[in-house]
Amino acid sequence: MSQQKSLHSVCRWTFNPGKGGFVPDNIREKWNKKGLDTIGSVQLIKEKIMPRLPENVELGYEVHYNSEVDESFASELADALVDSKISLAMITPGAHSHFAYGGIASPDKNEVSAARELGTKTVDLAYGPLKKAWHKEVVPTFVLWNGSYGYDLASVGVRNMYQNLKNSVAELCKYEEKAGGQLFMAIEPKPNEGHPAMLLPTVASAIVFWRKLEDEFGISRAKKGVNKEFGHTEMIGLDLINDTVEEIDNNMLVHMHLNSQGYNDGIILGGPGKYDIDHGTRVNGMNIAVAGLIRAAGFGRWKGHDMQPRAYDNETQAIDRVIRSILSWEACDQAAQKLDEKALWSYLENRETAKAEDMMRAALVDAQRAFDRMYA
Question: Tell me: the pLDDT tens digits for 170-199?
Fold first, then answer.
């Protein structure tokens, strides 16, 4: 079985002391801002996570500007990443931390202007002090999470917000092109949070959006696409497999967030209609199918683990969940490689779906055994 290089990225925001609200905000006291800063989390990944992973796995790092990195210590962070042999995999403007009225899509012209500036400063940081931390072969993704591109009032004004969004993203893409044009630009769809309604709720929405930018503004679709987040598809009750096929068919699968709401493994609770739970990757049949699809499509970019520790986890347990998430994906990928796709298709052609189901269930057993071997 081929053990080719596999790129996984770990997110800065996973290492938090607690979510607060209805659950503790200090269950992991050592991970508060004074105890574990952004550079400290890189060292933690190097010491506690890297040694537990297979040799074919290379690690990247994902970070928000300006809540998790800014100009004051970006050079120091880049040095820490290089020293740890961890690449900058993804950077995103943390607009949701600042703008509650639509961000770059806002009806408020002042907010639009400020949100656009946050985006251009993020580009500057990626091409500036963080450039030395780029992978030699696989450049980072610049993700536009739609958490600020939303609204809570039904009105004809939504049409103008959508146009503002197109204008803003087109302007950002032109700015990035002048800066170097090397980054992959990805929209991360989500049906809700931080607003009840979002302008780009689904994978199909993101694909259409990029095509509109090409038609209206001449923005090339090269290096543009979707940050596929498994849990966001699950939240809205859509089909993760079909999302993947659409992304591949439109050549827009440029980044991935391997997490789960948990509803499709029969063990962990969550799913459509639930809030964003952000479990790590699960060993399940859906992930085996996706692994087979992206392998056949030649996907070789970053697979991020946008996940949260459980509200009751201490630091050791939280680290263990990141390790389990990475190994779970690797296990699903190994099972997908062993699967006889010709035999599976033959069963489907002959309507022998029960036998096809048997094959997928056997692959699931293979994946769990692979996980057990790697985790041990």
Answer: 999 999 999 999 999 999 999 988 899 999
Whose tokens are 């079985």? That residue is: 1
How do residues 33-75 score in pLDDT, each as one tens digit? 889 999 999 999 999 999 999 999 999 999 999 999 999 999 9
The 8-class DSSP code of residue 156 comes to T
119 upstream amide cis, omega within 30 of 0: no
- Classify residue 294: in a domain, yes or no: yes
What whole-number distance in Å separates Cα of residue 148 and Cα of residue 94?
A: 9
* Contact assessment for residue 288 and residue 243, using Cβ atoms and an 8 Å cutoff: no
Q: Could you tell me if 222 and 271 are in contact, meaning their C-beta atoms sit under 8 angstroms apart?
A: no
Identity of the amino acid at 327: L
Query: What letter does residue 137 receive in the DSSP assignment?
Result: S
Which DSSP category does 325 fall into?
H
Nearest CA-CA partner of 10 in 66, 77, 89: 89
374 inside domain: no
Question: What is the CATH classification number for the domain harbouring 220?
Answer: 3.20.20.150
The domain total for the chain is 1
Is residue 351 in a domain?
no
Question: How is residue 37 written in tokens?
Answer: 């800063």
Contacts for 257 with CB less than 8 Å, ≥ 6 apart: 188, 227, 228, 229, 230, 231, 304, 305, 306
Tokens of 91: 């950077």
Q: Is the peptide bond before 66 cis (omega within 30 degrees of 0)?
A: yes
Q: For residue 80, report the phi and psi dihedrals to the nearest 5 degrees.
A: -65, -40
Host domain of residue 201: 6-339
The candidate with the shortest Cα–Cα distance to 207, out of 229, 188, 230, is: 188
279 bridge partner residues: 260
Q: For the purposes of burial, counting CB atoms within 10 Å of the CB of 72, is it exposed (0-12), middle (13-18) or buried (19 or more)?
A: exposed
d(CA 83, CA 92): 23
- Would you say residue 186 lies in a domain? yes
Closest CA to 63 of 30, 89, 31, 37: 89
